[in-house]
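User: Some background: our group keeps a shared notebook of sequences we're curious about, and every so often someone picks one and asks for a predicted structure to add to the entry. Today it's my turn. The entry only has the sequence so far, pasted here. Could you supply the structure so I can complete it?
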Amino acid sequence: MLYQFYLHFWTSFFAHSSEQKEDPAPYLAYLKSHFNPCVGVLIKTSWVLAPAHCYLPNLKVMLGNFKSRVRDGTEQTINPIQIIRYWKYNDSDPQDDIMLIKLDRPAILNRKVQLLPPATRNVSPGTICTLSGLDWSQKNSGRHPDLRQNLQGPVMTDKECQETEQGRNHRNSFCVKFVKVFNRIFGEVAVAAVICNKKLQGIEVGRFMGGDVGIYTNVYKYISWIEDVTKDKKK
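Assistant: Of course. Here's the predicted structure to add to the notebook entry:
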């Protein structure tokens, strides 16, 4: 598999000489499948928000500790019972790259499993936000990431975003400037979600990342759809 071939040739974006430290990002969900790795965010106990291009066969949602060799009791693996991609999404067009995953049972919250609410307002250019994602620790040579990592980066203006290769002709999205040049296969997994003002502001757009700029679906633009799909129908 292409993934396995490249894994041994990567230089980790976060790698350094000492042991890597896991950052706090308890809202991250790993979407495990037999295909490319993907990351979502737990927005309600029964709902995960993720990129629509992560609609993959045999998908399982993993929460809590991701280290397979070190168990700490926070691990949860939950099957999806419903996956709803935004109605305008098209596999051949990366616009509207957002979906919701309903879990077959509610997640149990603990120190490594927490909710992150979606943004209900837009984010201003220049805002310094947190980019959260998963990476491979130095001792992990397997197929699946096991380490949460956070970065900081500023939101770019719409004009700056549209002048980039990633942001050109893209709607309902925004760009973030990375602190260093970012080039590696499946790099979007490491900077999958953008958190601004303690809310989920953006989720990565596949195939549109590279260099020192990343483009993200603006979650705020879809908040009405998100709230309608995830509302408690019993009430």
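Suggested note for the entry: The mean pLDDT is 84. The chain has two domains: 22-115+223-230, 128-220.
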